[in-house]
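To fix ideas, we give here one paired sequence and structure record:
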Amino acid sequence: MARSKTSKKWMDEHVNDPYVKKAQVDGYRSRASYKLLEINEKDKLFRPGSVVMDLGSAPGGWSQVVAPIVGDSGRLIASDILPMDSIIGVDFIQGDFTEEAVYEQILQALGDNKVDVVISDMAPNQSGVKTTDQYASMHLVELALDMSRNVLKPGGCFCAKVFQGVGYEEYVKDVRSSFDKVLVRKPAASRPRSREVYLVAKGFKG
């Protein structure tokens, strides 16, 4: 079947993307690793000993960044509907975290610990219908925010990918209500034409 012009354009852009090439050389599973590396360099979200939760973790690009930094004294619990190849130092739970059974599994993995940082690079499967995709993406980040409110320790951080569009301003306002400081980041590895930005929220009010 012939590829559409759009998918051919995306494929060409993807293959020639400097961050895709860099990820292959550096051994990262995704170009998204560089987004989190840049954010963490600026905002110091996690450090050795941090307890981190990675939502929507597959294929593992963000977990690959976090695990070596938090080290043996820290913890990383990752979750995704899709399977993810194992990474040393990562407790991976496959399933939809909005389902009670999966949610319970995540809480069991945490034990009595509260979380220092919740990170989310989740995005819905694209339907091609802008409005539908925007609502679906906003629904996912709302769920990620709910999770962070349930598991974060006071003073904790939240970092999530958000697409600008319908519901974005209201969402930022909602995040501000639970955190002392909210920043908007557009990392260099994020394609300029993409509407994605990363909200970095610090100082969870608990």
Q: What stands out?
A: The longest strand covers residues 152-163.
